[in-house]
Design goal:
binds S-adenosylmethionine, binds iron/sulfur cluster, binds 6-(5-methyl-2-OXO-imidazolidin-4-yl)-hexanoic acid, alpha/beta, single chain
């Protein structure tokens, strides 16, 4: 009988308290659940905390492109790699305002400014502060990702009205050294701590498909989920393989394993916005739909990520219509 089957396969939905950290083994066990059980658990938790048909839209703008002094193996903007990305100077505040207005008109509610820096300089900060104030003035939520920050800089950004700071852990501590050698994991954790202390929302996630094994993938989620509190926003990127970067030939991950990562992020961080981030351009509508079912409720919206492409607004609008989904901002 069908009802019996439902009872039989109903997983226990475990809600953890902040004092009860997730072990890597527990998270790995979630990854290994039968797909239907994992999705069911993720959906239950998603529906407890969010409208499952609503999706938050963030538009990205690269305010300073290329020539970065870090050697992140995935990144086309690193000066260590030859990915054909030009080292450009920082955008003018007026250019940023123009892009933010266009994003707002297209329906985005959050505008994220990204810079290819290890860390911003004093002069960089003066311009960024102007940009944040101007974008905030348009009534949009603001986000920035500028590399490592010191206490003074987090304070400046908070005063300017920055809502979110994006700083990804990218992968597990054990795998980090295989991907980046110019900084260490603790540097990332220190900046996140400063962002939290200054009172801004934390946006932190990672990349899958860099050759990490399952334990390492679970290790990334454990790091994020065990932050106290965990990030309000968790971008899950599927590696965009760019010619000229060390990871250009990385083995493609099975799309269902990507969906599983979203589901595990949702289960372990119930109230976070889980963002289906880089890699969507290469993803079918069906896989994206599974990601939304798994608990993703935010996307990057607009033709461009930082240096690589993202689905066109028309494609995303059509996808949302097809799925009966709507932008979060439309209902608030
Ligand atoms: N430089 C700053 C930093 O690293 O924090 C901010 C910009 S950096 C490009 C922001 C994030 O983009 C990285 O942490 C990484 O997660 C993501 N990213 C960069 N290249 C990527 C790629 N090829 N595929 C997927 N995500 C990527
Ligand atoms: C995030 O987690 N993904 C975005 C944003 N935060 C800054 C960046 C994706 C970059 C993809 C490669 C590129 O376009 O250069
Ligand atoms: Fe620089 Fe950020 Fe790219 Fe690393 S990910 S090379 S820090 S821009």
């Amino acid at each position: 009988m069908q009802t019996q089957a439902i009872k039989l396969y109903r997983p226990s939905v475990e809600t953890k308290s902040a004092e009860q950290p997730w072990s890597v083994a527990e998270i790995e066990a979630l990854f290994k659940l039968p797909f239907a059980d994992l999705m069911y658990q993720a959906q239950q938790i998603h529906r407890e905390h969010f409208d499952p048909n609503s999706v938050q839209l963030s538009t990205l703008l690269s305010i300073k492109t290329g020539g970065c002094s870090e050697d992140c193996g995935y990144c086309p903007q690193s000066a260590f790699h030859d990915a054909g990305v030009e080292n450009r100077k920082m955008l003018e505040v007026s250019e940023v305002i123009k892009a933010a207005k266009a994003a707002q008109e297209a329906g985005a509610d959050r505008f994220c400014m990204g810079a290819a820096w290890r860390e911003p300089s004093k002069e960089d900060m003066e311009s960024v502060v102007e940009m944040v104030k101007a974008v905030r003035g348009l009534g949009m939520e603001t986000c920035a990702t500028l590399g490592m920050l010191n206490d003074e800089q987090t304070e400046q950004l908070r005063e300017a009205g920055l809502d979110y700071y994006n700083h990804n852990l990218d992968t597990s501590p054990e795998f980090y050294g295989d991907i980046i050698s110019t900084r260490d994991y603790q540097d990332r954790l220190d900046t996140l701590e400063r962002v939290r202390k200054a009172g801004m929302h934390v946006c932190s996630g990672g990349i899958v498909g860099m050759g990490e094994n399952l334990t390492q993938r679970a290790g990334l989620v454990a790091q994020l989920a065990n932050m106290n509190p965990y990030p309000e926003s968790v971008p899950i990127n599927n590696l965009v393989k760019v010619e000229g970067t060390p990871l250009a030939q990385a083995e493609e991950i099975d799309p269902l394993d990507f969906v599983r990562t979203i589901a595990v992020a949702r289960i372990t961080m119930p109230t976070a916005r889980v963002r289906l981030s880089a890699g969507r351009q290469q993803m079918s509508d069906a896989v994206q739909a599974l990601c939304f079912l798994a608990g993703a409720n935010s996307i990057f919206y607009g033709e461009q990520l930082l240096t690589t492409g993202n689905p066109e607004v028309e494609r995303d609008r059509a996808l949302m219509d097809k799925l009966g989904m709507y932008p979060f901002a439309d209902k608030h």
